[in-house]
Amino acid sequence: MKKKLIYLSFIVLAGLSLTYSCSSNKAKVNPTPSTPSATVAISNFAFVPDTVRIKSGQSVTWTNMDSAPHTATDLNGAFDSGTLATNKTFNFTFNATGTFSYHCLVHSMMKTAVVIVTN
Fold it and tell me: CATH number of the domain that 58 lies in?
């Protein structure tokens, strides 16, 4: 009976030790930092800045600061904000590398802008 009690105590202590070590490891894990984003203002009928460089997996947020409606539309169809009214935003996450040229569908006279995405 004494051997069974010692054996059972050993199993319980080993289980508690394993549980404690697993839970303390979880506390040491660092959370993944949030992915920084670039911002582009649509102001005075221009994209500001007109060139943005980001890494794959990051996003760009466009905000229409003009009183007129605008779009941020990729020339090859990768993204399209739709019509953005004043103070409205559009966010797009770029998961592929490359150079993405975009323009405003509403105002053809606006200069084409670029998002450059690297690894």
Answer: 2.60.40.420
